[in-house]
Design goal:
With 156 residues, the protein is mostly helical. The radius of gyration is 18 Å and the shape is globular.
């Protein structure tokens, strides 16, 4: 393991142990606060990726962007299509290629979820000390750099 020894390993382990549960708790709490149906975390991430791209995305590009297997994205898109959250559109007369787009329902649910998540976090941050809020704010750039460091390069 690269780093500066035992302390780096302890920090890495604590981050690894807490990030997943934090994300799942935020998702669950925000869904409940907004009265949204149960939307799996992976579907929220697909919606977020598609919401950032009005031109839609080919399933293979979506898989690469999310770091998921193409078969996983195919299954997610199929279930999301059945739920009315995404739609496939054929690409310019080519019956073999399609792009995936958010439906208005999905865009509204994502907006509602994001607003609820912001409210949940603002409320929780308000209960923390000023020092804790400052520490979290100061840590954000480092977390963004860490995310960049662990993100594999896109595959061709």
């Amino acid at each position: 393991m690269r780093g500066t020894g035992d302390e780096t390993a302890r920090v890495a382990r604590r981050l690894s142990d807490r990030i997943g549960p934090f994300r799942r708790t935020l998702l669950r709490t925000s869904r409940v606060a907004a009265g949204l149906p149960d939307i799996p975390d992976a579907q929220v991430e697909v919606m977020r990726a598609l919401g950032a791209d009005e031109a839609g995305s080919a399933p293979s590009a979506l898989a690469s962007r999310l770091g998921l297997a193409r078969s996983t994205v195919s299954n997610l898109v199929s279930s999301m299509e059945q739920a009315g959250l995404v739609e496939r559109r054929l690409v310019g007369g080519d019956g073999r290629r399609a792009t995936v787009h958010l439906t208005p329902l999905a865009a509204e649910r994502l907006r509602t979820y994001d607003e609820a998540a912001t409210t949940v976090l603002v409320d929780a941050l308000g209960r923390l000390s000023a020092d804790d809020r400052a520490a979290l704010a100061a840590a954000l750039p480092a977390l963004e750099r860490l995310h960049h460091e662990i993100t594999p390069p896109p595959t061709s």
